[in-house]
UniProtKB/TrEMBL annotation:
This is N-acetyltransferase domain-containing protein. One of its GO terms (molecular function) is acyltransferase activity, transferring groups other than amino-acyl groups. Pfam families: Acetyltransf_1 (PF00583). It comes from Thraustotheca clavata. Residues 11-152 form the N-acetyltransferase domain.
Length: 155
């Protein structure tokens, strides 16, 4: 991601309301209501152990990733890129930044809906491997893969 207009920031209590609104707008388009954290972005960002990164382009939100970690493992909680900014390397960049910040973990995990082929392709290309299929993970009829990236792949 070599666009000089792009900026990466950590979301927190000082983040401007326009940035939060930009994240909410993407979240609402990318995820159905029952999977949405649109009403709780600041809570997500400020919960102990969580980190929330946002990429802006000319001050407009184009993508974000949320992850949590403890001393042993990391977990990707959310990733999304605005429709108009996809296929420009932003999703990969956000994942790389998240992985970099969890580099002392023994492994990094995530769930991905089985129908989310683009996200699945991204995670596979970063080295994440399917560990299990979790039936009805999001709701009845909405299964997820539980994927993991072992530390040898990123340390
Ligand atoms: C998944 C998502 C974050 C990818 O963001 P992005 O910025 O478009 O991704 P990138 O441009 O960095 O692409 C990275 C890789 O993802 C895969 N990928 C992304 N979009 C793809 C598409 N439309 N078709 C096939 N592969 C795709 C490719 O492997 C790609 O690598 P390549 O460009 O070298 O082929 C984006 O599609 C999105 O927000 N989707 C909706 C929300 C979502 O599914 N989030 C994940 C929930 S677990």
């Amino acid at each position: 991601m070599a666009d000089i207009d792009m900026e990466l920031d950590v979301v927190g209590i000082k983040t401007r309301p326009e940035i939060i609104a930009g994240i909410v707008a993407i979240e609402k388009k990318a995820f159905p209501k029952h999977e949405s954290m649109a009403n709780d972005i600041l809570k997500e960002a400020t919960t102990s152990g969580n980190t929330f990164l946002v990429v802006t382009k000319s001050d407009c939100v184009v993508g974000y990733v949320s992850f949590s970690r403890n001393s042993v493992v990391g977990h990707i909680r959310k990733l999304a890129v605005a429709l108009s900014s996809r296929r420009q390397g932003i999703g990969r960049y956000l994942m790389q930044q998240a992985i970099l910040r969890m580099k002392s973990a023994m492994s990094i995990s995530l769930h991905v809906g089985v129908e989310r082929e683009n996200a699945f392709a991204l995670y596979k290309s970063l080295g994440f491997q399917i560990q299990h299929l979790r039936k009805d993970y999001y709701r009845v009829g909405r299964d997820a893969y539980f994927m993991e990236l072992e530390s040898e792949a990123f340390q």
